[in-house]
Amino acid sequence: MVEDCLSKFVQEQLWNQVPVAIALIDRDFRISEINSAFKEQYGGGVGRPCYEVYKGRKSRCKNCAAAKSFSDGKTRVREEKGRIDEGEQRYYIVHMIPLRQPDGHIPCIVEMSTDITLTKQLEHDKIEAERLAAVGQTVAGLAHGIKNVLMGLEGGMYVMRSGMDRSDEERIKRGCQMLEDNVARISTFVKEFLQFARGHTPKVKLTDPNKIAQKVYDMFYQKAAMAGIGLKLNLQEKIAMAMMDEMGILDCVSNLVSNALDACEISDKPGRSVSLSTLDEHGALVIEVADDGVGMDYEVKKKVFTNFFSTKGSDKGTGLGLLTTSKIVQEHGGKVSVESEPGKGSVFRLVFPRDRLPTMHKKEEG
Amino acid sequence: MTDSNEGRKKILVIDDEPSVVIYLETLLQDNGYNTISASNGNDGMEKALEHHPDLICLDITMPEKSGVSFYRDIRKNEETKDIPVVIVTAVTYYGGDPEPFKNFLSSRHIVPAPDAFFPKPIDKKEFISKINELLA
Ligand SMILES: Nc1ncnc2c1ncn2[C@@H]1O[C@H](COP(=O)(O)OP(=O)(O)O)[C@@H](O)[C@H]1O
Ligand SMILES: [Mg+2]
Fold first, then answer.
1. β partners of residue A115
2. Which of A185, A188, A192, A259 to mutate to test the pocket of ligand 1 (most atoms within 8 A of CB)?
3. Which chain B residues are within 8 Å of A143, Cβ to Cβ?
4. What is the per-residue pLDDT for A46?
5. How many Å apart are CA A120 and CA A113, to the nearest integer?
6. Closest CA relative to residue B90, chosen from B126, B49, B132, B119
7. Which range is least confidently modeled, A71-80, A180-189, A288-297, A306-315?
8. Cα angle vertex A99, ends A97, A101, to 5°?
9. Is A156 on the interface with B (CB under 8 A)?
């Protein structure tokens, strides 16, 4: 009795009322049966090839998951790009479940696709919102830094002019020095500001993360050696390529390495070292910079990203490095994480979940 | 520079920017004050307890101990709670209105608000006349 009800429920209600498009695909990759949701989404399709209906293609997809399920009998779940609908790319989660006869033969595959375009859109909006927040913070930070420089310049002018009024050689020199210091700071600002501005139009392309790490290593190797700091490079072999803005990420990694070297230089421990590593971990690309320098206490750690903040002398620090870094990383859908202990050292990690990395507007796959 | 100028009022300048410190000290000395300086809140607290300045010029964003926590501490300490404090900061307050920031500084009125507030870069004349007024 219950079984009858259940099979009726499956046949009539479930089949036609779930908001999931379901089709049966036969061994010729033709659609043999569809439910109501499918009909609504694709406007029919019985008797036509699946690739034509799903993707608007003329031949079978490379990497056809249905073909694989026919041959190994396994269920597959994939995220697929569907057709472009009124100019909008649609995304689906597709379940492919082989239907098996008692003799083991698989006559068809049940393909269930759930439209996740909206979810994707929300995710994208969230990344965009995070990006904008980072931009706002950076601009506020810049304004802050520039005001300090301006005050330094006005101070230099005051000291120099009043020195001239009193024919006080010492004062004139001091004023000049203040002007020079603050002009030098402006050039550092401009350089970092350009770094920041370039992030606006990231040039994203398929990039080898190890190549970036190697370049940064080459940039800093000499400097580290001269300061007596060991710089080590640990690359994960054959790490997968990633869609990234190579210049942007290069800036991020060099910011981290430069900070790590500064942290070692301040510390007076012997045998200090910095290591730069690449690795894949839980579906994310990770670029890690670890040092055994001075480390940070809770107060400093709290502020490194959120505010315009530097603990270095005015000639060295701008407090822009980590802000820019987190902005660029966020633009790639990633996060910067930090672990640190005063006196022990710090570990900064750029974590890029691979499924959040930018996607290319390449020609439809195949 | 001029500890010999006995009888002059003494001002403590706290800022982590060397140029700002030199600027403010020179300007204040030129206007008849003695000065001492500190480059962060901890150093500033020591100097305040040791020298009992007549007024403090305070920056907000500084390493180690920020101006915010320095301000709250100095207002809670019996020895220092009545020293006038003039904030000189690059912190941008919203829409140019310093009131919310003053409230924040006074921990929402647990301690009194600072005596004056100057955004960087300062207006020299206004700055000096405010200091003269506070020390009159
Ligand atoms: N590896 C590190 N070890 C210790 N402190 C660090 C490290 N990286 C960053 N910091 C702290 O974070 C602050 C901000 O860094 P950053 O944004 O790069 O600015 P800057 O290097 O110009 O000071 C530094 O001044 C320092 O106090
Ligand atoms: Mg830096």
1. A92
2. A259
3. 92
4. 93
5. 15
6. B119
7. A306-315
8. 155
9. yes
Structural contact between residues A109 and A98, judged by C-beta atoms closer than 8 angstroms: yes
Between positions 20 and 59 of B, the ones with CB within 8 A of A are: 20, 22-24, 26-27, 30
DSSP three-state, residue A28 = coil
Of B17, B22, B26, the CB nearest to A148: B17
Question: Amino acid identity, residue B73?
Answer: D
Measured distance CA(A83)–CA(A91) in Å, rounded: 8
pLDDT tens-digit series, residues B35-50: 999 998 899 999 999 9
Let me know: does A47 contact A23? Beta carbons within 8 Å. Answer: no
Within 8 A of A152 by CB-CB distance, chain B residues are: 17, 19-20, 23
Other Cβ atoms closer than 10 A to A227: 13
Q: What is the distance between the terminal CA atoms of chain B, rounded to a whole angstrom?
A: 23
Residue in the block written with tokens 């995304």 = A91
Mind listing the domains of chain B with CATH numbers? 10-135 (3.40.50.2300)
Q: Which of A42-51, A78-87, A136-145, A352-361 has the highest mean pLDDT?
A: A42-51
In this predicted structure, which of A56-65, A76-85, B15-24, B42-51 has the lowest mean pLDDT?
Answer: A76-85
- The answer to whether A241 and A282 are in contact (CB under 8 A) is no
Backbone angles phi, psi at A116, to 5 degrees: -115, 20
Instruction: Give pLDDT tens digits for A267-296.
Output: 877 889 999 999 999 999 999 999 999 999
Give me the interface pTM, i.e. the ipTM.
0.81
Ligand 2 centroid – CA A322 distance (Å): 6
User: Which H/E stretch holds residue A157?
Assistant: helix A117-165
Say what the pLDDT of residue A135 is: 62
